[in-house]
Design a protein that fits this description.
Elements: H1 11-38, H2 46-70, H3 84-112
Helix pairs in contact: 1-2, 2-3
């Protein structure tokens, strides 16, 4: 019978704790830096909420695959053998290329196509109240 030794159970919450810390740190430090240095505004927090923890998860999966393979008896149940961590990193790289490429393409399309034909002065760009219309009873 094949001996299967898994990584310790506490590694999952440990990675989750680091991912949560990374996400909050990204919100506090990285988002303002991206805006001030590169002019990128991450209004939904995609970079710090999904990107940074996702990269951490991809790196952790490669590490866990390497550690799992190193245990005697586990090699026969890993699909790509000792190269499995490299496949994990390849998957992470493909995901990063697809997400950055998709984000750039979406940003380009949105910046060039104005379906609503609306023009806003820069000081009103992040102000939602101009798109909300109240009834006559609330008019000033």
């Amino acid at each position: 019978m094949t001996r299967v030794s898994l990584v310790p159970f506490w590694w999952a919450p440990a990675v989750g704790l680091v991912a949560g810390t990374l996400s909050v740190t990204g919100y506090v430090l990285a988002s303002p830096a991206l805006e001030s240095r590169l002019g990128l505004t991450d209004t939904c927090g995609v970079f710090n909420l999904h990107g940074c923890p996702g990269i951490l998860g991809g790196l952790a999966s490669a590490l866990f695959a390497a550690l799992f393979f190193a245990v005697e008896g586990n090699a026969s149940i890993i699909v790509h053998g000792s190269s499995q961590p490299w496949y994990q990193l390849l998957g992470l790289g493909i995901t990063l290329v697809a997400s950055v490429g998709g984000g750039l393409l979406a940003g380009l399309v949105i910046s060039k196509v104005n379906l609503c034909k609306q023009e806003l002065p820069p000081e009103k760009m992040f102000e939602d109240s101009i798109f909300w219309h109240e009834g006559e009873e609330h008019a000033e």
